[in-house]
Amino acid sequence: MRSTLSDTMRRAMNAQETGAVILPLITMTQDDWADEIRLVPNTEPITRLGKVFEPLAFTVSLPDEEEEGVPVIQWTADNVDRRLVQALRSVRGVVKATIVWVLAETPDIDELLPLEVEMRAAEYDAMTISGTMGVEPILDMQFGHLVFNPANTPGIF
Question: The domain spanning residue 53 has which CATH number?
Fold first, then answer.
């Protein structure tokens, strides 16, 4: 998942003090939802490329870069707005999401390349919503049309 950072982002991350604010923007979609859900962990809405991201207190981690296993993103959000829980309760199928990191002063510029992810699991209680998102869902897809199982290829089992 390695990516290059812009010079502005690199300076902000390495500065002893900075006024730059790094924000992850999440766009979630699902076939049964009427509209996308767009969220930003900020105190006010952010407009990016003509779309408004609504404020919600949440944290999202960058995926691990380990040799073994599929990269997973952990996320946690405050459950103060019940609309997200209602949307998650109505899910039939896969929730797809795009996460991009931007600087608050330049939200139209990608500072870290957009990640296309699938929501793997979500849990909620009265205070929080949390879950995992898989970074490379293509690794879970079947390759080819043939299936090897004990019924049609007993020699390999």
Answer: 2.30.110
Whether residue 40 contacts residue 105, with contact meaning beta carbons closer than 8 Å, is answered with no
**In which residue are the tokens 């930003």 written?**
40
31-39 own/partner pairs: CB under 8 Å, 24+ apart: 31/92, 31/93, 32/90, 32/91, 32/92, 32/93, 33/87, 33/90, 37/84, 37/87, 39/77
Task: Note whether residue 2 is domain-resident.
Answer: no
Is the residue at 118 inside a domain?
yes
Which one, of 74, 125, 123, 67, lies nearest residue 99 by Cα?
74
Q: DSSP label at 144? A: S
Q: For residue 129, what are the domain limits?
A: 7-156
In the structure encoding, which two tokens stand for residue 62, read together?
Answer: 């960058």
Q: What is the pLDDT of residues 83-112, one digit of tens each?
A: 888 888 888 778 899 999 999 999 998 888
pTM for the model stands at 0.77
Instruction: Look up residue 33 and give its two tokens.
Output: 């939802």
